[in-house]
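In the lab's daily routine, each protein ends up as an entry in a very long ledger. A line of letters takes care of the sequence, but it says nothing directly about the fold. The three-dimensional part falls to structure tokens, numbers that each stand for a local backbone shape. The outcome of that step, for a single protein, is printed below.
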Amino acid sequence: MALTGIQIFKLLPKTNCKECGVPTCLAFAMNLASGKAELDSCPYVSDEARAELAEASAPPIRPVVVGKGVRKATTGGETVLYRHEKTFFNPTMFAGTITSDSAAADVEAKLKAWNALQYERVGFNLRPELVALKDVNGDKDAFAALAKLVAETSEFNLILMSEDAAVIGAGVDGCGFKRPVIYAATEANADDMGKIALDNDLPLAIKADSIDAIIALSDKLTAMGLKDLIIDTGTRELKQALEDQVAIRRSALKDGNRSLGFPTIVFPSEMTDSPDMEALVAGMFVAKYAGIVVLSEFTTEVIFPLLLERLNIFTDPQRPMTVTEGIYPIGNPDENSPVMVTTNFALTYFIVSGEIEASKVPSWLLIKDAEGLSVLTAWAAGKFSGDDVGMFVKKCGIMEKVKHTELIIPGYAAAIAGEVEEELSGWTITVGPRESAHLAGFLKAR
């Protein structure tokens, strides 16, 4: 349970030294309680108080680090039920399934194809993170060989799937350096799986047929010393699986139930035989509230929309998505191509750039930093004024790329045309259409 500001204040040294950056210890305590400060900012807090505060301020859902290397990621760590309350921090991870009876050559080909599924969007590289290696025949040597192959020849991290502790142990021997997830500890094998996870410092998924059984299993494993757990409630029936996700999240956040305060894993791959339905189910669990989603396969038509959904859901709603300020050439423009300017709100950029591409008119698109606001909002807030736009055009380097002196501004910013002309002496300022849908026709008619 999170402490209040007053409770935190009682544990602080009360020196009012100001070295933390605020004038009093009470103000610092209030900042700690609201998540606006870090405990390390106080140089005089005692070790006992630090330990108590660290435990009390731990997220209600434990963050669990999965994997190592460039695709290492954290799941869990969430503090709110709805993203508009604050934000969701650690994006859902996606896993594609490979069975242990697969030929090595087939696995290599699949890994190569899966690794190519990377997409640039708003300055982010979107890609799946995990391979779920599923034991289908109990052959621990084959399982270990494929685990090693995936770990050593790809950037993917792994989920090792078997309820046979001997198979899991062999798999860990092959890929333990990648910090795989062990799946899964059940009531029957909890001691053996727990020991493997504890000895190798690996995250362990737990599986049972009800939330009550999950609580019992979670308590048993945490008593053994395990901390990094991931929950699977076992059901593969869609309605029940959704209810379980919501119940676990609510219990951890609202009731402070530490036995359920762990990220979850779900298996759309085992809930339907239809690839289309699998994608829909996966999309639902990205929103409600899976930490890891296991798919039967990675294909562009499935993984790309899921990655975009994930990007949107795990973007801070209080901070709009932006693109980097600068010059964006569209369609191989030359020194005679038109020059346009707009704000760095990501949605504005994608819509405008899409319309320019559709026009087939090679153009230069200048993106000015307006703190992620749309054109009309930025103009109203003074973030897209004529003086600022003129100065940006001078400094961005576009004058070295074109011979002409014409700048096209958005229709909704027509009021700044005169100010831009004053700043850009000798330039002609043309007011473009208000609606981006009319931009293609506007460019073609020039």
